[in-house]
Amino acid sequence: MADKFDVIVIGAGPGGYVSAIRAAQMGLKAAVVEKWISEDGKPVFGGTCLNVGCIPSKALLEASHKFVEAKHDFDGMGIQAGDVSMDVKKMMARKDTIVKNLTGGVAGLLKGNGVTAIQGTGKVVSSKQVEVTDQDGKATTYDADNIVVAAGSVPVEIPPTPLVDGMVVNSTGALEFQETPKRLGVIGAGIIGLELGSVWNRLGSEVTVLEAMDDFLPMVDGAIAKETQKLLKKQGLDIKLGARVTGSEVKGEEVVVKYTDAKGEQEVTFDKLIVCVGRKPYTEGVIAEGVGIETDQRGFIQVDDQCRTSVPSVYAIGDCVRGPMLAHKASEEGVMVADIIAGHKAEMNYDAIPNVIYTFPEVAWVGLTEQEAKAKGIEVKTGSFPFAASGRAMANNATEGQAKIIADAETDRVLGMHIVGQHAGEMVAQGVIALEFGSSAEDLALTCYAHPTMSEAVHEAALAVEGHAIHMVNRKKK
């Protein structure tokens, strides 16, 4: 008879493996089920994020950015680097090594914390049972007092652009190019599309991004989105808004894409096409019929604020439930659920989840945009500060962008922080902490920041909320 566990987690991505480890730390007997296997038949942990998402894309973004710096920016700093070239295959090999090291590290963490790793495809067959089918088709049923579904998500495919191996690819395939395409098409100007488009644009591709929506980055504060679009256009990304793709056809070594925009029907030819139109929950086949776990029409598992499903003792976290599809959101939900199962009171602040786009400069935000706040009927006051006035930004050759803070006009409470600039993803943590602790803009303004740092722009933006920024002319009067 198979072992019985206190907790079985289905999926070993950043939500699942973290939840299993936390459960084990709480003294629970925990197991994690993962169907992904390597070429040598061993389980591969880390899910999309570590294997074909966050980590490998950041490795390519960092390498390509350093290449651009060496090619275009070093000379202005007095560094004579000579002719600079990129070995794409070597860049990809480095990416693969980083992924292998990290996924191996997760395996070590699971083992070190006493979590049982079960290889196979997991399915919830009752409120207390998980059926796991291995690669040979053998099914084993495990009993568990609690079950956590952390099955993740997969890229959305659209009928007009069916995938064609090596030619029309999704975000996973875009991480495997072995040479730089001369003409690259990207469908979708979201986070993934902009990041992957940036990688290959830096390496010499002529990149065209086709976005069906008329607005650029609508989830970002309007002023930050407008500046980001301008900066990416300056770098060479051709972003076409209101461009609805109607079809694609592979002709020899080219991909012909048809789309419609305000001017009518258009046609453009690429050497490669990346489809980045979002992700959908991976829940099909994860829950047996009759279990009673509710899903919506898009496949998301219905949960409450503490990730409980409609079936007692079964939880669901990460990309397969509501909320942003972010690795850190999934991890925090995993910790919350493990703590609840262990008998602790735990909750998560969904209003303080940071978002980052790892272009250069980075774009990061947390909380409300100015537009969202006003739509809610909240009167706001804002403060902004440009990195062009930052001493550290000048020294770093990174003067593009700005930091912006949105505060409640009546209470001064920080409602949101939006940044476009170098290291924005690191700086936005200050906004997360401010929201978590209910800080006022004045709290940030009264904080002593180290000089010179990029974060001083956040300090000055907080001062600017009341018109007291020191290093720029203030428009607000007392």
Description:
- This protein is of the alpha/beta class.
- It folds into three domains: 4-155 and 280-348, FAD/NAD(P)-binding domain; 168-277, FAD/NAD(P)-binding domain (3-Layer(bba) Sandwich), CATH 3.50.50; 353-464, Enolase-like, domain 1, CATH 3.30.390.
- Helices cover 29% and strands 26% of the residues.
- It has 13 helices and 22 strands.
- It has helices spanning 16-25, 47-52, 54-73, 88-112, 191-202, 222-235, 327-341, 370-375, 391-395, 424-427, 429-436, 441-445, 456-464, and strands at residues 4-10, 30-34, 116-119, 121-126, 129-133, 139-149, 153-155, 168-169, 183-187, 206-211, 238-241, 244-251, 254-261, 264-270, 272-275, 279-281, 314-316, 355-357, 362-367, 380-386, 402-408, 414-421.
- Strands 1, 2, 3, 4, 5, 6 and 17 form a seven-stranded mixed sheet that branches.
- Helix 6 (222-235) links the parallel strand 10 (206-211) and strand 11.
- The protein starts with a strand and ends in a 14-residue tail after the last helix.
- The mean pLDDT is 97.
Task: Give the SSE layout.
Blueprint: E1 4-10, H1 16-25, E2 30-34, H2 47-52, H3 54-73, H4 88-112, E3 116-119, E4 121-126, E5 129-133, E6 139-149, E7 153-155, E8 168-169, E9 183-187, H5 191-202, E10 206-211, H6 222-235, E11 238-241, E12 244-251, E13 254-261, E14 264-270, E15 272-275, E16 279-281, E17 314-316, H7 327-341, E18 355-357, E19 362-367, H8 370-375, E20 380-386, H9 391-395, E21 402-408, E22 414-421, H10 424-427, H11 429-436, H12 441-445, H13 456-464
Parallel strand pairs: 1-2, 1-6, 2-3, 6-17, 8-15, 9-10, 9-15, 10-11
Antiparallel strand pairs: 4-5, 5-6, 7-16, 12-13, 13-14, 18-19, 19-22, 20-21, 21-22
Helix pairs in contact: 1-7, 3-4, 3-5
